[in-house]
Design a protein that fits this description.
With 102 residues, this protein is of the alpha/beta class. It has one domain: 2-Layer Sandwich (Transcription Regulator spoIIAA). The chain has 3 helices and 4 strands; from the N terminus they run E-E-E-H-E-H-H. Strands 1-2-3-4 form a 4-stranded mixed beta sheet, covered by helices on one side. The termini are far apart.
Length: 102
């Protein structure tokens, strides 16, 4: 299984690479410092995510919550089909997919 990695750019782009699964996501929860991003729009690019399970979905929902707490705009692109299905099955597609995912 591939580990998960995150690359944060100065322009608000966050690239996520690897596997977003139970044993790989814990190191990513606090990697985005939303306190310092209050004036930025955050775009999380998931197009390099190879596999995902419910822990990966929970991570993205956590990021949405953190962004809302800091009044930071957050959007997603390249959302893997696995994550779309999980969001739908868990009835959180409005929370997750409603944040400009493409």
């Amino acid at each position: 299984m591939t580990s998960a990695n995150l690359v944060q750019h100065n322009d608000g782009l966050v690239e996520v690479h690897g596997s977003l699964q139970h044993d790989t996501v814990s190191s990513l929860y606090d990697r985005i410092n939303f306190n310092q991003l209050s004036d930025q729009n955050i775009l999380i690019d998931l197009s390099a995510v190879e596999s995902v399970d419910s822990a990966g979905l929970a991570l993205c929902l956590f990021w949405i919550s953190q962004a809302q707490n800091q009044i930071v705009s957050i959007a997603f692109r390249g959302v893997p089909e696995q994550m779309r299905r999980l969001a739908s099955m868990n009835r959180v597609e409005d929370l997750f997919l409603g944040h400009n995912s493409k």
